[in-house]
Give the backbone structure.
Amino acid sequence: MHIHIFWDSLSPPGLQVPVTRMIAGILGVPATVSENHVRIMGYVNERKQIDAQVLLDSIHTYKHRHSIEEPILLVVHQDLFRDGSRFVFGLARQTAGTAVVSTSRLGNEFYGREANDDDLIDRITKEGAHEVGHLLGLGHCDNPECIMFRPDTLDELDRKKKMFCEACREQLEAWLTPD
Ligand SMILES: [Zn+2]
Ligand SMILES: [Zn+2]
């Protein structure tokens, strides 16, 4: 098992190495990061947002074309939405092994606060590990400190710790070490 992280050119530069290292550490799975070659699709002009489902389709096409079996997490800067939601921080499709995270609402500056790279690294890491958690078979968790808790706000995202609760950890380990 190995996770590919694709860092789009518009995503915050210089953060990909610490984010990748931390995601790998949280999941206990090796991860590598490279520049993104997936076509950014699904932009909806009226919303100034990307339809996350369409972007997941594009990642799927890329995976297929390049015969990549392992999960791919794409980090973009454009804001994402999905049917029925004003926005999403990220989205994963377990059956395809594809996930996307947007950094657009993860920076302090989006909320009128002073920018801070450490905050941003933390949040991209938590969101990324959450979406890859879905790809590795995990659902949402009720524990507000667990990576698999689904945050609706930045405060809820910040309240999470950079780790899985015991129950999710056990599930993950069972999935990663099939007997
Ligand atoms: Zn989720
Ligand atoms: Zn949990």
User: Anything to note?
Assistant: The mean pLDDT is 96. Residues 117-135 form the longest helix (19 residues).
